[in-house]
């Protein structure tokens, strides 16, 4: 597949024809969605926590400059060296310079979407640094030479059979489909890298302004090992990861794991504050924190500010019928799914990502599950409007929407069309379902059946019923 957002439609066709991908996506996203629903149902305070989390993120964005300044001051006071990168190129340059100045030749890396966004690994490799992904999913996709396809489960598109073949080919290991054995193989190959690495690279789930702390929320011990064993720790994080207070953290620890994987709490929660102090048995001697802007300041000042609330849980991906069908690589950018359909056009430019806001049914499920209440469907619609303003819609699309508006604004035409559809649709119905549609419309029924239209249009039923009152029955 092409790793460019404007290739979404071509990538989607390939994804839909890939039977192994379809099997992997169905298993994984379905499991995540069910687990989330169960864990939320078991936590009566979830909606209140969700509202509180949304308010905290809104507060952080409203005063982001002040909170960032405090975070930098507090982190610096505790021994960290804080760098700020205006864009991806500057972030790469800073990371490469840090590696050279620190004399690093091997880096062990934990999963980081911000690092993926700025293409950090190629920059370090160009500077002579071997970079080894330590998250199991990232380790798998690194061996395969692929980008991650999910925010929290990078190898969600791989079946265990594919991983087994990959380990046999790349690592020389015997073929096995037993998951514990595959995990053991990966851990064995990574352990010596942990012990030899001069630098650990991580992202950050949250940055606490009042203490200068970096918070990592993970389900594997790799993130913790990568921050305490190497001499140098490099944190790469978007500026929007700042929250005002360490005391704000508990609410996010309640909503993030439930939204991401359906867990009550993640296996590892690490609050990292400063460098190793005298008497500490472990921790880095040098801590570098690289804060990345890369277009976020511009987003903050505009009408799409709420997308910066995102805490990268992946819930919107797991519930989205489009993502469930085509997977992450089809989106062609670092961030897939509904959140990526908003973020990618904002970060890369709307002409590059114009296909993505249209990669949505606007069913609203993503907004319903978002733990910080980002109105994703509204943002997607707004981007579609921007496409029209910027001349990115095709003449066919414009003509089609004008025709739709003309019909919907004329009751007589709408009612006549409803009657016609009701009659014609019977040709394509079976047992109360529309089982197929002809020509260009066939895509709507290739993968699911539609309920058959009602015997009478709603408007006709309304006319019949509107004069009837309960006391007349």
Secondary-structure map with pairings?
Layout: H1 8-16, H2 19-41, H3 46-62, H4 64-77, E1 80-85, H5 88-101, E2 106-109, H6 113-117, H7 120-126, E3 130-133, H8 136-144, H9 160-171, H10 179-196, E4 199-202, E5 206-208, E6 213-218, H11 222-228, E7 232-238, E8 242-243, H12 249-260, E9 268-272, E10 286-292, H13 296-300, H14 315-319, H15 321-326, H16 337-348, H17 350-353, H18 365-369, H19 376-389, H20 395-408, H21 411-424, E11 429-430, E12 433-434, E13 450-451, H22 458-465
Parallel strand pairs: 1-10, 2-3, 2-4, 4-7, 5-8, 7-10
Antiparallel strand pairs: 5-6, 6-9, 11-12, 12-13
Would you write up a description of this structure?
With about 475 residues, the chain is α/β, with parallel strands linked by helices. The chain has helices at about 10-15, 20-40, 45-60, 65-75, 90-100, 115, 120-125, 135-145, 160-170, 180-195, 220-230, 250-260, 295-300, 315-320, 320-325, 335-350, 350-355, 365-370, 375-390, 395-410, 410-425, 460-465, and strands at about 80-85, 105-110, 130-135, 200, 205-210, 215-220, 230-240, 240-245, 270, 285-290, 430, 435, 450. The strands form three sheets. It has a six-stranded parallel beta sheet with strand order 1-10-7-4-2-3, with helices on both faces. A hairpin with a 2-residue loop joins strand 11 and strand 12. The relative contact order is 0.13.
């Amino acid at each position: 597949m092409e790793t460019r957002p404007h290739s979404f439609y071509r990538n989607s066709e390939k994804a839909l024809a890939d039977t192994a991908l379809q099997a992997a996506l169905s298993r994984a996203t379905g499991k995540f969605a069910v687990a989330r629903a169960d864990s939320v149902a078991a936590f009566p305070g979830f909606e209140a926590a969700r509202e509180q989390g949304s308010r905290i993120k809104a507060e952080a964005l409203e005063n982001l400059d002040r909170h960032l300044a405090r975070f930098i001051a507090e982190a610096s006071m505790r021994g960290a060296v804080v760098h700020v990168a205006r864009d991806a190129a500057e972030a790469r340059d800073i990371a490469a310079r840090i590696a050279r100045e620190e004399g690093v030749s091997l880096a062990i890396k934990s999963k980081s979407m911000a690092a993926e966004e700025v293409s950090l690994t190629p920059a370090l490799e160009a500077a002579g640094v071997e970079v080894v992904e330590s998250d199991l999913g990232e380790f798998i996709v690194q061996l395969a030479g692929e980008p991650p396809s999910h925010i929290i489960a990078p190898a969600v598109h791989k079946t265990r059979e594919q991983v087994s073949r990959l380990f046999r080919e790349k690592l020389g290991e015997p073929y096995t489909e037993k998951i514990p054995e595959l995990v053991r193989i990966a851990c064995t190959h990574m352990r010596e890298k942990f012990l030899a690495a001069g630098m650990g690279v991580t992202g950050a789930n949250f940055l606490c302004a009042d203490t200068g702390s970096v918070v990592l929320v993970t389900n594997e011990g790799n993130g913790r090992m990568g921050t305490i064993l190497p001499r140098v720790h490099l944190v790469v994080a978007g500026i929007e990861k700042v929250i005002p207070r360490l005391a704000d953290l508990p609410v996010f620890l309640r909503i993030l794991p439930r939204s991401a994987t359906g867990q009550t709490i993640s296996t590892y929660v690490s609050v990292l504050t400063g460098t190793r102090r005298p008497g500490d048995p472990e921790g880095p001697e040098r801590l570098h924190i690289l804060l990345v802007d890369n277009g976020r300041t511009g987003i903050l000042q505009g009408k799409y500010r709420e997308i910066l609330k995102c805490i990268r849980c992946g819930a919107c991906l797991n519930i989205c019928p489009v993502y469930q069908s085509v997977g992450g690589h089809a989106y062609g950018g670092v961030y897939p799914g509904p959140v990526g359909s908003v973020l990618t056009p904002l970060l890369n430019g709307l002409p590059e990502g114009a296909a993505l806001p249209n990669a949505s049914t606007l069913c609203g499920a993503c907004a319903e599950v978002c733990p910080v209440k980002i109105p994703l469907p509204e943002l997607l619609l707004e981007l579609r409007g921007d496409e029209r303003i910027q001349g990115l819609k095709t003449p066919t699309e414009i003509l089609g929407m004008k025709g739709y508006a003309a019909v919907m604004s004329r009751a007589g035409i709408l009612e006549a069309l409803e009657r016609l559809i009701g009659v014609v649709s019977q040709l394509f119905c079976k047992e109360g379902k529309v089982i197929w549609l002809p020509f260009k419309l066939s895509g709507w029924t290739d993968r699911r059946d539609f309920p058959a239209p009602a015997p009478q249009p709603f408007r006709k039923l309304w006319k019949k019923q509107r004069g009837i009152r309960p006391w007349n029955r």
